[in-house]
Amino acid sequence: MTQRRNRDGSTVAYYALAENAWNPAAKRAEARVVHNFGRADQLDRAALQRLVNSINRVLNDGETVTGSTPDLPAIEIEHVFELGVVLAARGLWEDLGIGPAIRRCIAEAGLTAPHEAALFAMAANRLDTPGSKLACAARWLPDVAFLPDAAGLAVDQLYRALDFLAVWSDRIEHEVFLQAADLFRLDVDLIFYDTTTAYFETDEADEQPEEWGGRLFAPLRRRGHSKEGRDNQPQVIVALAVTRDGMPVRSWVLPGDTADVATVARIKDDLRAWRLGRCVFVGDAGMYSAENMAELSRGLGRYILAVPMRKVKEIELEVLTRPGRYKAVAGNLQVKEVVVGEGERRRRYVLCLNPEEAERQRRHREQVLVELAVELRLLQEREDDHPKAACALLASRRYGRYLATDYLGRPRLDAAKIKAAEKFDGKFVVITNDDTLTAEDVALGYKGGWIIESCFRRMKQTGLEVRPMFHWAARRIEAHVRLCVLALQMQRAAEIRCALPWARIAHELAALKAVRYQAGERTIVQRSKIADSLGVILKKLGISAPKQVLSVSDPAETAAAT
Asked: Rounded to 5 degrees, what angle do the CA atoms 502, 491, 248 make?
C-alpha cells in the first residue's frame, strides 16, 4: 500500500501487487509493481475476493478454499443422511441385474407406479437398519437414507410394490441368477438346497387360498414341525438353493405344515427348468432316518445327510473302527470313505476329521475329568450317604457320559466309556447316495450346507431380519421373503468382491454420510470425506466415489419444489 498527500492536506491510499526484484546494476533489491488495484476507498472487494479464490483453487488442486472472511454466509446444518450403504446397494442392485429385471417386468405389465424405487428402498433398508414397511416409509426414508428417487414414498406404495413382486418374483429371480452366474462366474455344477422355518406372532392359521394377479397363493401360515422350537405357532417353510460360493440361486415359500421330504420333487423340477438338474439336498442329523432317505431318493435323487454318530451303532462298530488313511482336503479337514454292505443295501459313509477340533475336544475332556475326580472325592469324603448328589452326577450331561456304578450303586469313572469317547474327537460322518461325488466333494458339500445355514441365520437372526413378519396375506408373505433373498444376494455379492464379511463392509460404508446444510440462501447437500479404507472397498465393489457436492438448490428452486 502506498499513500499520497493532497494539496488540501488529506491522504489517499492506493493498493498494488508488488514483488522484490534484484537490480544487478544498483546491486540492491527494488520493488516492482505487478498490478495496480487503485484507490483504497474505491477498491472492488468482490473482484479482489474472486482473485484470492482463483489463486487458492490453483494452489489446492482445483478445490475452492475460502478463508474466514466476514463476507462468507453462515452455515446451518439441517440433516445428516446415511449414504454409504445406499450407494453400495444401488451399485449392486444394477450389477446383479435386479433393477433392469424389475424395469422390464414393469414395462411388460404396462405399469407406471414407482415399484422399482419402492423395492430398492425396502431392500436397502434390509441391508442398513431392517424394520417394518411402515418404519421404512415413515422414518428410514425421510430421516436416514439419502434416496432422492424414493423421496415421498408412502407405506401403501411399498405394499403395492410387494404385490407386484409376488406376481413377478419367479421371472425376476431367473434373470438375476443368469446375470450373477455370468458376472461372478459362479460354479453352478452343484447346487445345495435346505429348508428352515419362520414363525408368526399369531394364534390363527390360514385356511383359504388367495388369488391375486392371475396367481393362486396357497395358505402359508400353518402349524407344523418348527426348527425353532415353536411347534404351537403358525409358520412358513423357507427353502433356499445356493451355489458352492454361497450365492443364493432360488428361493421358495411353502406352507408351514410341509415336510422337508415332500418339497424335494418340486425343487428338482423347478431347478431342472433352469437347467440346474444336479441338485444335492444337504441336511443335518435330524433328517437321518430310513424313511426320509427313501423319500429323498425318490423325489430329489441325491442327498448328503449328517449321521447322528452316537445314536447309530453301525457308525461306532463299522465306520469309526475301519482301518485306512485319511486324505487331506483342507488345512483343517481330512476325509476317509467307508462303504458298509453290498448291492442295493450298501451304504456309503464319509468319515470327516478336523484335527484342530479333535485337539480342542481332547483338552476339554481332560478338564472335565479333573473336575469329575474332585466331585467324586468330595462325595466319598462325606460321612453320610448322599443319593441325590450321586444321582445328580450320573444324570449330568457334562459328567454322566464318563461314569458307571459300582456294586453299591455309587458313581465311579468308567475307563471303557472314556476310551470310547476318544473315538469321536473331531469327527463327523455324512452319508450320501450319489456315487458321482468323490469323498472330498461330499465333505465339502456338507460344509456347503453350513453356508446355507449361515444364509438362514442372516435372514432370521442377524442382519436382514426376515422376522417378525407384519403381513397376513399370502402374497405379501411370499414377497417379503423374496425381498429378503434379493437383499441377501446383494450382501453375498459384496462379500465375494471384497473378500470381507458384510459386517466389516457395512461398518466402513456407514462412515460415508450426506450432509444437508444452508449456506446463505442456498441449500447444499455434500458428502463427507472418504477414508482410504472406504475408498478401497468402493473400488472393489466397482463403485465410483460420489462427487463432493451432491446437489445445490436456490431459494426459487426450493420454493417451486415444495
From this structure: 130
